[in-house]
Amino acid sequence: MTKIKQLALWILIFAFTCASFTSAKAEQTFDANSNIRVLIEVNDYKLSKYEPTKGVYLGAYVYQDTLINGDMKKFNELTGKKHASFFIYVGYGSPFPQKWIDELKKVGAAAHIAFEPNNGLDEVKDDGYLRSFAKKLNEAGIPVFLRFASEMNGDWTAYSGDPKKYIEKWRLVHDVMEEEAPNVMMVWTVFTFPQSNILSYYPGDDYVDWVGVNIYNVIYHNGNINLKADQEDPLELLDYVYDTFSERKPIQISEFGATHYTITDGKYYEDFAIEKITRMYNGLKTKYPRVKSIFYFDVNNLVNAPAGRRINNYAITDNERILKTYSNLISDPYFLSDVGPNLEGTANNEFMVVKDGILVLNGKTFVSSAVLQKYMKARVFWDSQNNKLTVSKGSNTITFDIKSYKDVTNGQRGAFILNGTSYFPLIEIAQQIGYIIKWDGNEKLIKVSMSS
């Protein structure tokens, strides 16, 4: 064995020994700082169907708002802003909602239809009904979010329990829409939980345009006073779907509501609703840039829900304080009033959330070589002879000495190897290879932007 190879071997042994010795401490440090969020801008994301280049399509469900008789124009007036889309529930096999489509077009909004096979999946066939429904969607002449068979991960739907059949039927509907209604976006939507079975129902990237999730903030789950839920953060309820799918699909919050009265204890919770609504809509602007549409569920379920589900009031039109809060939040231009042109396939700069390969040590953030390569398109080289690691992108290069994990945590400048993976100080890397870093202390958010 040559001296160079022997030296390289000893360096590797030393690095892995240090990594093994300190791995437990590293994990503890990471866990203690895991609430820090890192967003890195990429420039090679391809837009999905009707996905906006930036911002969030503003939507709502008002069809059952009895205070305004489901009037979409009136809702826009009360909230002070035109909404880009409204939605309606249509049971599979039911007549096409032509009257609603006509009213929708009068307010210049896109359609969002929750298309539900409430008699089970067997009724879903490539037949005259489905083809006719698709052709009428096309004839509507407006963009359509088609949310077929949503919340399939819950046992309360008639189409849950058989992921294989679900995927088969989803793909069937997708193919019919692709042939008959090119203006339709297929939106695959789950409920926040359970999460354990969500992936088993996913039809595949080629069959899904948008990924959605339904999120509700309530005081008690299922009207059970022993199941307190008031501590739940709406953004954390979004995390699983967002982290799993946002790198490849735009995310839609297909339904969101926060109760301000529940019959479970017969109390009003205005402050609770205001807090949760504010948390959600502000959070989308800062921490969840891949959410591209949101629909508020403006319904008093005490009146309009089916028997057995009349538990919470989510309406905002019957409460002046909540309505004012909502109006102020959506007045931000980030919330879009119109669905734009279809730019499907166009490359667009997007901020991706990065969780794997991030370590925070004594207040300093480190990123792995995998993060640098995947998100920042940088190259990493190991100089075994001189015990150095070099990162380059274009004509920009930065070199680090390889230090032990202990030395780096004690403040020494350098890169380190942990469990076979090299880590680099993010701020030094980013500045050197052409990125700008912004730190939001209130949100504990690190945003890494391209400088040009």
UniProtKB/TrEMBL annotation:
Residues 2-326 form the GH26 domain. It comes from the Bacteria. SUPFAM superfamilies: (Trans)glycosidases, Copper amine oxidase, domain N. The keyword Signal applies. PROSITE patterns: GH26 (PS51764). InterPro entries: Cu_amine_oxidase-like_N, GH, GH26_dom, Glyco_hydro_26, Mao_N_sf. GO terms for biological process: substituted mannan metabolic process. Pfam families: Cu_amine_oxidN1, Glyco_hydro_26. The active site is at 151 (proton donor), 255 (nucleophile). GO terms for molecular function: mannan endo-1,4-beta-mannosidase activity. Residues 1-26 form the signal peptide. Keywords: Glycosidase, Hydrolase, Signal. Belongs to the glycosyl hydrolase 26 family. This is Copper amine oxidase-like domain-containing protein. It comes from Thermoanaerobacter wiegelii Rt8.B1.
